[in-house]
């Protein structure tokens, strides 16, 4: 069950807002969290989803644990730290308080992928690292693609005092408007043939009347 948001999770600065980007709230959208691993020798990314897909809330912590037992398909090479991950209207906060000091595995990508979903179509416009405490996370470790946020912790040491906060900007995509119904292309020749037939019939009647 989600816990109430910790006071310590909101102590970081939230001054960032990218100029020119429309801002939408993530509150009410669903979020899937996956641990992802890509080795240096493989073009493929192994992804393991948490069994919980919560709805982003203004008052609850979405993920109270990210230990290996929380994932649907635990693997031998999957060993994420036990973190608390809090998501709000425009931020993601990582809290390592429950983690045992260690170092993330080494690879092209070793981290987490967040996918935001229904009820609205969310598109992420930006993700900025606004705070990192006892964690050498860099802006270059963070990327976005459509409705996904990717955070690469590759080879980073951490302790139970590590923290990080990302500020997000996003927009709600409006579904495309359906066009007004028009005749299908295949039916256009039939309409043309019908019109020509009517013209021919009228001319035939006019000739008949003139010769009668």
Please explain how this structure is put together.
The protein is mainly beta and 212 residues long. The chain has a five-stranded antiparallel β-sheet, with no helix packed on it. The N and C termini lie far apart (94 Å). It has one helix and eleven strands; from the N terminus they run βββββββββββα. The chain has one domain. It is elongated, with a radius of gyration of 28 Å. This is Secreted protein. Keywords: Signal. InterPro entries: Ice-binding_C.
List the helices and strands and how they pair.
Layout: E1 31-38, E2 46-49, E3 84-87, E4 91-95, E5 102-103, E6 109-116, E7 121-133, E8 142-145, E9 148-152, E10 157-158, E11 163-173, H1 188-211
Mean pLDDT across residues: 81
Q: How would you write the strand order of the largest sheet?
A: 2-1-6-9-8
- Rg (CA only): 28 Å
Per DSSP E runs of 2 or more residues, the count of β-strands stands at 11
Shape type: elongated
Helical content stands at 10-25%
Low-confidence stretches: 1-22
Number of helices: 1
Largest sheet: 5 strands, antiparallel
Question: Helix and strand string, N-terminal first?
Answer: EEEEEEEEEEEH
- Kindly give the count of domains: 1
N→C terminal distance: 94 Å
What proportion strand? 25-35%
Structural class: mainly beta
Short descriptors:
212 residues, mainly beta, 5-stranded antiparallel β-sheet, 4-stranded antiparallel β-sheet, 11 strands, disordered N terminus
Write a compact overview of the structure shown.
InterPro entries: Ice-binding_C. By secondary structure, the protein is mainly beta.
